[in-house]
């Protein structure tokens, strides 16, 4: 059994994105579900879907069987973009306009032969507040990740939200993780 489900989820996502897999399966908790919603809303993952519940065909005999209806896991689809590479990428060094147009036409012909690399939208995931050391901040002390390019996910009294939302509402809370 895993004690820290958030760091388990972040580690699974980090490992699968490094190996360029499309989907990740993480254990279902309400906190993991909320973090997945935020990651999808911010554009870091493609989609997510709770899975693993009992089919509707089975009949439930007593109230203990109601726990079987809860999802057991969350399937997360990771998001990637294509980064194109070509060996004729430094056109700014050319000063002769004739040579520039020749290379420009050459690149147009090579467009189908360009090499592309699959790059994850998630560069880094970091767990900040851990079970052994909780970190709480007010709305004035909220950290900015890469000048606002990344996000910090907070657990507040109003629910799980991003740092931008918490700054707008003027509330602080426990800093769960940072994503960029």
Automatic annotation (TrEMBL):
Compartments, record wording: Plastid, Chloroplast
Entry keyword annotation includes RNA-binding: yes
Any Pfam family hit: Ribosomal_S8
GO cellular component, one term: chloroplast
SUPFAM superfamilies the record matches: Ribosomal protein S8
PROSITE patterns: RIBOSOMAL_S8
One of the GO BP terms on file: translation
Example of a GO MF term: rRNA binding
Classification via InterPro entries: Ribosomal_uS8, Ribosomal_uS8_CS, Ribosomal_uS8_sf
Origin superkingdom: Eukaryota
Keywords: Chloroplast, Plastid, Ribonucleoprotein, Ribosomal protein, RNA-binding, rRNA-binding
Job description of the protein: One of the primary rRNA binding proteins, it binds directly to 16S rRNA central domain where it helps coordinate assembly of the platform of the 30S subunit.
PANTHER family xrefs: 40S RIBOSOMAL PROTEIN S15A
Protein family per UniProt: Belongs to the universal ribosomal protein uS8 family.
Subunit and interaction comment: Part of the 30S ribosomal subunit.
Name of the protein: Small ribosomal subunit protein uS8c
Organism for this UniProt entry: Floydiella terrestris
